[in-house]
């Protein structure tokens, strides 16, 4: 494989360089996303344990400040800050309209935090999806071009032995192997991370509803 890669030239060499770059980037993205999502899930589990065990929101807020990678902690901090603003704002806090408006403000802050955290967690996932879709076609282009060069060389000579054309054809086919080497892990990783993010998204939605219900029950 290494000999075939180093023997590549021209357009095929360019395709090989592109595919090797995609392989390296895919490895980096997969490792990075695995660490990021694992941290988000593990810290969210820790936060939920503290959230349901504690009786005071200010104690939970101090815990949430130390869990920087947890999307649930980020949602709690956003809701806590908005609740503090509402309570400091004063106004006609006893009217039904004021209570509904204050609750809506907190709900919007939770939703904004959720969207922001999901955006962070979904970063670089489109790259994996794009690589999985485009890499096979890039490899196919390199293969077709290499085989075309091999047959053009045969046409120029008028005839050729199998031993003479096997090398350039093998060099062309190696681009397909490289394409699969980048595309298959990218697709598998994308589906795996997407599944884990769906679970996290559901947990964030559930937490947001529970948190809002607690605020309504105790503060409004």
From TrEMBL:
Keyword Cell membrane: yes
One Pfam family in the UniProt entry: MotA_ExbB
Keyword Transport: yes
Places the protein is found: Cell membrane; Membrane
CC annotations in GO: plasma membrane
Main location: membrane
Bilayer-crossing regions: 12-35, 124-148, 168-193
Domain MotA/TolQ/ExbB proton channel residue range list: 86-204
Name of this chain's protein: Biopolymer transport protein ExbB
Organism from which the protein derives: Enhygromyxa salina
Lineage: Bacteria, Pseudomonadati, Myxococcota, Polyangia, Nannocystales
